[in-house]
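#data-curation
PF: Archiving a pair of folding outputs for the training set. Convention for this channel: one message per protein, sequence first, structure tokens after, nothing in between. First:
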Amino acid sequence: MKKAYVIFPVLAMLIFFGFWWNFSSVYDAKQAAIAQQIKLEKQQKLEQEANDRAKAIQEAVANQAIRKAEREAREAQKQKDREERQAAKEASQKAFRDKEKLARQSARLAEDVKAEQDAIAKLEDRKKFLIGEKSFLREYVLKAESNQNSLTQVIQKIIAADEARAKAAKAAAEAAKRNS
């Protein structure tokens, strides 16, 4: 029995050592394969991450270029809008100045028209006065001419009467001479 105490544990140990040896040789290979697999996976993961980073960088650069182009387009649009606003503002101010200028010119022309109308009215009054003066002078001239004609006739009658009286006085003086 004393041998059984030694044989069974030695046998168990030999069986255990057989399993352990079998396990140890396969286990190291499995662990090395697993480690190699993990290392490959890490390597692939790192390569994938590097590729992803490179793609992300390329996309970021492309996006940055796109954003830069969009920003430049927005800035160009803003500048164009500012220029259009400025041009519209200047056009509005020019239109306002032109409106004011034309309003002043219109007021000045209205005053000129009023002054000219007043002058025309004065000239019309003067014309009426002169036409009345002309008709008065014509009538006066006609009356003066008729008076002159009348006076000429009266003077001729007086002269004729004076001549007739002188002839009569002469004839009377001659008759008185003859009678005397």
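PF: Second:
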Amino acid sequence: MKSIILLATLIFGLASAQAQFAYEASAEHPFGLPNPEAPEQIKDYAPLIGECDCSSVRRKPDQSWDEPKKMLWRFKYILNGMAVQDDALHEGGTHGGSIRQFIADSTRWYVHYYSTNFPSTTLPAWEGNRNDSTMVLYKEQKAPNGMEGFYKITFSEMTEDGFKWSGDWVNPDESIVYPTWKIECIKRKEE
């Protein structure tokens, strides 16, 4: 009788734990699922969830564009479907990623970035929102000459087939836009 009670307790505990973490990545859903208790905006990144093959090109110190580099960009739901995380694995060994949380009180996405190139005790954060198929995020950043401005990140043409991404330095009224990084991604199809 004790073994039946113990077995029932274990089964109930396992079922309860699975239900509690139902939106985490699993064999059935390798990139997790959006939690229905999350803000509606959790679905802003839905077209990007999964893996993409990308071409990344950055501006060199002499202001010319470098050769394109291959990149794998993976997006998934984390925190039991309440946030989004991405990992970018760049050809040549540079890697980075972000944790993306929508904070309902401020009605904005906050994106905390980390990188193997720039380890930090405090993660820089961009903030912004999605409109139609475009997500725009900003972080205050001075230009090399000291001019006030922002680093602006734009996800555009976000579809189930892929997206484009750009990083630009902009002045406060965006009358000056200086592109520094461009990425084009094609979504890997599930087999």
